[in-house]
Design brief:
The chain has 381 residues and is of the alpha/beta class. Helices cover 49% and strands 12% of the residues. It has four domains: 87 residues, DNA Methylphosphotriester Repair Domain (3-Layer(aba) Sandwich), CATH 3.40.10; 50 residues; 67 residues, 2-Layer Sandwich (Double Stranded RNA Binding Domain); 81 residues, Orthogonal Bundle (Arc Repressor Mutant, subunit A), CATH 1.10.10.10. The chain binds zinc ion.
């Protein structure tokens, strides 16, 4: 049961530890039975079985030392060996610890877990993400070895860990801070230029527009007519930001204003007609490929849900529960349904392919009748 008293470093590691602990819970009973059976202890010593380290030690009468089962030293003769439940028991019997295998030091695995925990803390507390060399030097391993140990325990590289940690800080700070500059500073980015370079990935928008709910963003838009009624298409410089369906063009414009309250809405030019035409073509044939760039804005969670929606093949449907399962959060069914409802890109992000558990159509942001028609079109193609 060693290791249970150590606080988990973070989630990924906690999972790993659970596995380790499951393996370890078997050991006390294995030890009890093997203490009755010295042959199996002897076999562990002969095999230099690392997994038995920490469960017993053996002493050698001729040298007066005791070792962990995996000690790399040449083995003594069986008749000179004795087995002890712990280093303390071996010491009480008059033996001293082997200098080579250090039987009373923590096992390598536990030691590595401790080093990685320290490294994680260094990364979290540093103003600037520490370099691999600096982290390795701090925990006393070579950079190559440290990188391998870190990844084997956490599942990610030190750099990926630092980036993930920093992105979380940026998001948290943006919600709290009064100014973007403050958020940048709080998250430990000393150069705004680099923050902006990163923020595109983190937020899908530059920090200023994120805070202001899309302020200063220009959206070109146009309304076309499809067999499913009016279609409003709006695009930023990055791609299509909204595809809205409805009966009344005026209501669609109002809907756009509500969804992008701080953006500057610009009536479209001729060039934009091509984009509208291709969007209408998608609505007429919803299973077809649509390769215009999308400017998808939402939280990280919404992005996951929307990405999963885009992976549902045309002509098939899934339930909200299945979708939640697919993004690895089977309990988040309500949140998944909310993310589907928040979709601003009708058909391009095919939220119409999500149905109720019993196969019933359930609701659709743009009307159940349109959903029925879209699914029927996909089934036919
Ligand atoms: Zn030894």
């Amino acid at each position: 049961m060693q290791g249970r008293d150590k606080a988990p470093i973070f989630l990924i590691m906690e999972t790993r530890k659970t596995t380790t602990m499951l393996a370890k819970t078997k050991q006390p009973s294995a030890r009890r039975s093997s203490m009755r059976d010295e042959d199996s202890l002897y076999a562990a010593v002969v095999a230099r079985d690392k997994s038995m380290d920490g469960t017993f030690v053996y002493s050698v009468a001729t040298t007066g030392v005791y070792c962990r089962p995996s000690c790399p030293s040449r083995h003594a003769r069986r008749e000179n060996m004795a087995f002890h439940a712990s280093g303390a028991a071996a010491q009480a019997a008059g033996f001293r610890a082997c200098k080579r295998c250090k039987p009373d030091a923590p096992s390598l695995e536990a030691e590595h877990a401790r080093l990685v925990a320290n490294a994680c803390r260094l990364i979290e507390e540093a103003e600037e993400p520490p370099t691999l060399d600096a982290l390795a030097a701090d925990v006393g391993l070579s950079p190559y070895h440290f990188h391998r140990v870190f990844k084997s325990i956490t599942g990610v590289t030190p750099k990926a860990y630092a980036i993930a940690h920093r992105q979380k800080r940026v998001r948290d700070n943006l919600k709290r801070s009064t100014s973007v500059t403050e958020a940048i500073h709080d998250a430990g980015f000393n150069s705004s230029g680099r923050f902006y370079a990163n923020a595109g990935e983190v937020l899908g928008m530059t920090p200023t527009t994120f805070r202001a709910g899309g302020k200063d963003m220009q959206l070109r838009f146009a309304i076309g007519k499809s067999s499913l009624g009016a279609v409003l298409v709006a695009a930023s410089s990055k791609g299509i930001a909204a595809i809205l369906l409805g009966d009344d063009p005026e209501k669609l414009v109002h809907d756009l204003e509500v969804r992008f309250p701080k953006s500057e809405l610009i009536g479209s030019d001729r060039e934009f007609e091509e984009v509208v035409a291709r969007t209408i073509a998608l609505i007429e044939a919803p299973g077809a490929r649509f390769d215009l760039p999308l400017d998808v804005r939402g939280t990280a969670f919404q992005h996951r849900v929307w990405q999963a929606l885009r992976e549902i093949p045309a002509g098939t449907t899934v339930s909200y529960a299945e979708l939640a399962e697919r993004i690895g959060l089977p309990k988040a069914i309500r949140a998944v349904a909310a993310a589907c409802a928040a979709n601003r890109l009708a058909v391009a992000i095919p939220c119409h392919r999500v149905v109720r558990n019993d196969g019933a159509l359930s609701g659709y942001r743009w009307g159940v009748e349109r959903k029925r028609k879209l699914l029927a079109r996909e089934a036919r193609s």
